[in-house]
Amino acid sequence: MKKALAIDVGGTKIYNTIIDESGKIVGEIEKRPTPKTFDEIKTVFKEIISKYEDDVDVIAFATCGAVNNENTGILGSTGNIAKEYPSMDFKSLSSKPVFVENDANAAAWAEHVIGASKGMPYSVMLTLGTGVGGGIILDNKLYKGKSGAAGEMHFKLRTDNHRKCTCGSFDCFEAYASGTGLRLTAVEMSNNPNITTYDVIAGKQNGCEQMTSIFNKWQDDILAGIIGLANLFDPDVVVLSGSMAEFVDIEYLEKEANKQIVTQPFKVVKASAGNYSGMIGAALLALGVK
Amino acid sequence: MKKALAIDVGGTKIYNTIIDESGKIVGEIEKRPTPKTFDEIKTVFKEIISKYEDDVDVIAFATCGAVNNENTGILGSTGNIAKEYPSMDFKSLSSKPVFVENDANAAAWAEHVIGASKGMPYSVMLTLGTGVGGGIILDNKLYKGKSGAAGEMHFKLRTDNHRKCTCGSFDCFEAYASGTGLRLTAVEMSNNPNITTYDVIAGKQNGCEQMTSIFNKWQDDILAGIIGLANLFDPDVVVLSGSMAEFVDIEYLEKEANKQIVTQPFKVVKASAGNYSGMIGAALLALGVK
């Protein structure tokens, strides 16, 4: 069975492991902090690759940042990682084939092949964490757009420049539907600048009315985004993943969204490919598993 | 050269003509009011078809309503046309092949083959009229989604249930970016319930500050939608068509949108396939012209 060395590159952590073509993790999961400088990141990549490349058929990166349609490198700039990172020459890192994909796209592919959207040709995945990632699968293919950058969940939920988004613009879905968005919604609704997402989640679980209404506002912003995506893409399913997805009421979202769309009924489900779906999806893509 | 009898079915008018495989209109343009009842609509279709079917290779409908992926009939319900219309058995209307596509999708295809998005594999078309229609072309193919209903421009620009949309939900792009949306924005901003879109357009052209600021708010709502679509689809181009498109500042929209997106640069252009692009696109699709 063919195997990939999978490397997940985030702004704060780099993970790696070995994954076979069934999507099974067959190596140790290693984890280290993402170094500050471009050269240090490159050194870490080389260390990992030299240790494992003889045991695998391909090297598969799941990385932050948009990845080109050739799956060889990063497009444009990325947020919280060394500013030269987009110039990384991934191919030169190994004598084995090197494949690169955006982490959210890779995770969506893992769900499509072995997870919650398996068997469904049209799916949109939303990764609700500190920010919001997106991955779109259309007709059983990862949708990348003209340059590779498609699937960015930066569509506006307001038009009055109310809340600055990490992308530099205002009022994107990410700015409301993310964990950061929940915190900011809580600050606005409670007039408490020190309130945390934990306060809202714990308060709601303890039956606090105010925290429940803050939570519901956040969840309805997620609902609003899902409705728009369903009307645009007419998908079989919207998959929710990421640390914040565990708190949402999936049944409510599915039922309410289906009431409001003009397209055909669709499902809303939670991701099931696990915490390492980015590495799994990158490995499956690199190994050509559909 | 192969030819299609093209029939455009809207809520108020039915048009028909003959179109060849180069996209050229080679017949008279006939126009009649859309009858009130299902049986009368069927009778009109039969009249048109019996008159022209011997002269053409296929019958091509561009119709209101979402059309299935088999291009044989309507999905779900449609707004302002006889309520039984979605049950129309189009195939039974002629001994020649009958092809059906949604009017906005057909118009987007006409732009792709002979119009403003020619030569560009990824395009999103917005038809700004009384409402807003949408057509999405991805990788040189009309994007229809799992059931055929994709490309509905019902994504929310607000989340406070401010303005009811024709779809039954609130605050969709259509409710702001359409001609009707401009009128409602004008009513809100002027506190004059009788203000018309004409008043805004004429006032702006005459240099009225208030009308200009109403117009700019409407145009910035269109901009907000375009930014979201560009971040989701990473298209080569967004094409604006419809009666309201002639008023917008295309250069402004392109420049501002490109400043705010996180994906790669794209164009904003006006449609160029003409007033009958729905019929032209349906004919080209029916004749298999790419």
CATH architecture of the largest domain in chain A: 2-Layer Sandwich
Please name the fourth-level CATH homologous superfamily of the largest domain in chain A: ATPase, nucleotide binding domain
Poorly predicted spans of chain A: none
CATH class of the largest domain in chain A: Alpha Beta
β-sheet strand percentage of chain A: 15-25%
* Chain pair sharing the greatest interface: A-B, 49 and 49 residues
Number of domains of chain A: 2
Q: Write down the overall geometry of chain A.
A: globular
Count of alpha and pi helical runs of chain A: 8
Radius of gyration of chain A: 19 Å
The profile of the biggest β sheet of chain A is:
5 strands, mixed
* CATH topology category name of the largest domain in chain A: Nucleotidyltransferase, domain 5
Beta strands of chain A, count: 12
